[in-house]
Batch of 2 targets.
Target 1
Amino acid sequence: MQLVIENLTKTYSGGVRALDSVSLSIPIGMYGLLGPNGAGKSTLMRTIATLQDPDSGNVMLGDLDVLADKMKVRQLLGYLPQEFGVYPKTSARAMLDHIAILKGITNRGERRDRVEAMLNRVNLSQHARKSISSFSGGMKQRFGIAQALIGDPQLLIVDEPTAGLDPGERNRFYNLLSEVGENIIVILSTHIVQDVKELCTQMAIIHQGTVRFAGAPADAEASLSGHIWQKSVSKPELEELRSQLQVISTKLVAGRPLVHVLSETEPGDGFESVPPDLEDVFFSSIQPDAPSAV
Ligand code: ADP
């Protein structure tokens, strides 16, 4: 089974082209969709989740036409939206039971077994009687995954799931997702490079509605091999460098800017060549004049 997206285009009524001829092939496993805020990720996720229509293009899940057979797709889909909405005062167990009914699990005994197994899987069994509104951010996200998985989906979409989680919660969430991604298609939409680095075997970078890279993270890094240069500079020097070179990122190390520059040749003057990492790929792909992959 593969999810194949072809030439999806969407322009909102205000004139923003959120998707511009997006084509991707997404296999079973964890697929990272990486892009800055406003790139078009949620628009793409909502389109695949059958919640909105594109202006043009096709989406196929195996031999199912996603845009035409919405009801069939919904039976195969688990979705954790960016804004999961209001967190009810209902207990986690009662809410999951309710969602299981909506997913068509009508046999009471089977439903109870599935709900308990799912609560256990997301490590919420001991909190099952507490109201979801009282949960921490990480617990809410784990509940979000439980509600997305209770119908046994073939396709799981999670939109910006780690934003706002502390490092411990984020790690627990990563472990949970990586288990799920072994057997089904999981699309993880995120602006956090670390999410993709830690979890995904395949990825795409999307910016201003277009695909800038699609492939394996290691291939993305290899594509910049020999082109990333690093130097520790003073703050006034940094301003000067920006006008001369393609500075793709700066971070402070002990209060001093460490710059990464994209250049085919040695930029000279104290720069050292460094192996590219995924952040370099991401930041160079979203430069104003970066080429589109397709
Ligand atoms: P991301 O999820 O990557 O942050 P979105 O898909 O939410 O990106 O947004 C892509 C672009 O489309 C942004 O410029 C955003 O402001 C715009 N946009 C998103 N939803 C709407 C909408 N309902 N109406 C008008 N513009 C929208």
Target 2
Amino acid sequence: MKLSKAKHKDTEECYMSNGLRIGVYPGSFDPLTNGHLDIIHRASKLFDKLIVAVLHNDSKQAVFSMEERVELIKKCTGDIENVEVDMFSGLLVNYVKKKQAVAIVKGLRAVSDYEYELQMAMLNKHIDKNVETIFLMADIQNSFLSSSIVKELAKNGGNISGLVPEQIIDDINLTLRKKL
Ligand code: ADP
């Protein structure tokens, strides 16, 4: 596949794959929550294809394996035609370029997310000026929700219903019981 760049009238360029607008939604997804799924649904409407990319991060100890995280996401997104689930390691910008994606998608929950995400977006733009980052505001009912909260709650016997998609509640509880 040839890497093509679309010329815009203000001479800015962006990556496109065979005329398709691809978005990459990266994250740990350890595990997927309703907050993530909401962003996936909304972002899938903005791009021809959305790649949910599970990050392998050596410096962040994950509870769910890469394969488990990918499986959980696939189970919840199988009905969205233009969503693909993948995994990657290393620099996000390199992965985005490899996939010929036009933008990185990020979810913003609170002001606290903003500072870090702004820094990351600027860094990525510095590495490659053609890589845009698009921020979607978290739905108000998910704005307190994180994978860590889900793990903490489930580990202590709490009910995670309403925080993660119904079809993966049992998988999450089972895996956590085995591992923690
Ligand atoms: P966490 O911070 O929960 O470990 P991830 O690394 O898995 O999150 O997050 C991947 C992306 O999803 C990030 O852009 C993050 O801001 C976003 N995100 C995480 N939780 C939510 C939520 N509850 N609502 C909207 N976006 C979220």
